[in-house]
Amino acid sequence: MIVDIHTHITYGKYPQFSKLVDQNRKDFPVKALLKEMDSDGIDISVLLPLVNPENDGYFGVAGNIECLEAARKYPERLVSFCNIDPRCMLNTPKADLGKLMRIYKDLGCRGIGEICANLPLESPLYDNLFRHAAEEDMPILFHFTGQAGGTYGAIDAMHFPALQKLLKKYPHAKVIGHAMAFWNEIDGDMKESDRETYPKNQIKKKGYLFTMMDKHPNIYGDISAGSCYNALSRTPEVGHSFLKRFNKKLFFGTDRFTPKTPSPILNFMKEALKNKKLTKNEYDNIMYKNFKRIFTGETK
Ligand SMILES: [Zn+2]
Predict the structure, then answer these.
(1) How far is it, in rounded angstroms, from Cα 300 to Cα 289?
(2) Which end of the chain is flanked by fewer CB atoms within 10 Å, N or C?
(3) What is the pTM of this model?
């Protein structure tokens, strides 16, 4: 079985938004996603709505209601998260975001994300989001960045000092990390200027990501997108040792949002199993069992 924790669909009714970023981009409605899942042997996909003003509309990616409706239409194949901007409910750190979370939870949403608000993680608004997500037991999936402006994602400095404060302050918050700033921490020699890039140099020293994942029981990783594939494949021994060590804290994902999005991570995982870099149980943990355990409470 394979569960993909990171996919997006584009607006079903208004494909013209899909061309905002790229004239040649094709739209990717729910039926196109199901087709790709079938061809890759993916059983279940998690739909991540985009709602933050940094990318709402701009990528033509469906928001909360459309993702929710798609998941209710195909309950065997799709699960939806809800996305809650930390500025939601009148842009105040006093907002009772839990009320909103409970509505989405009752409608079937299993987590929150992909959170892309380009605000510092020190912001009281993010503190409020963490507090409510922890209280409501809703895992939060983040796009992280080191950059303010000209991009999207929650902002933190190298080695994620603000994130780690929040992880400690809210031990019941479950945070799933994603994107270049997160995955590039796999390299102990990473420079500040490399944070938002796809570095190709060999990894000689294990990076701070190992320390952070060891230290905090409530941080997880989503192995989707070019960012993670690059981090794991640039020095495969380091990549395999990371997968092995944290096999109970990682989720398989593709970050599909357009037809024929290449997903080299799927081959990387299959090869790792074939070449005995991972046991079948470690592989299954990453491919679906962690999802079942964390999101549905199933332990099989
Ligand atoms: Zn994404």
Answers:
(1) 7
(2) C
(3) 0.96
